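Fold this: CRE2A protein
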Amino acid sequence: DLDECASSPCKDHQYCLNTDGSFSCKACDASCVDCTGEGSEKCKTCSSGYVKEDEKCTDIDECNLPEKVCMNENQDCVNTSGSYKCVCSEGFEDKDGTCVQT
């Protein structure tokens, strides 16, 4: 078997999987910019919103950072995979970018 992966035939954000007589390109984990294999522990570089921790890329919880990320009044932070979103607190709704009491 010829190792086609030796010539790096895959695109960015993919890794090469050598098979008998062929190869396939597989997508890197969402937490990786580039990788050497499957999963967040095979990342070469972490995506934005992730940090390398114990040899794998883990999500940064922006809502627990010392500096507040949701600055508007009556707004709560919700952590998402690789990012976060700001939502109106319970009892408030978004009216033209401002959280007003419902």
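The CA atoms of residues 39 and 101 lie 43 Å apart. The two ends are 67 Å apart (CA to CA).
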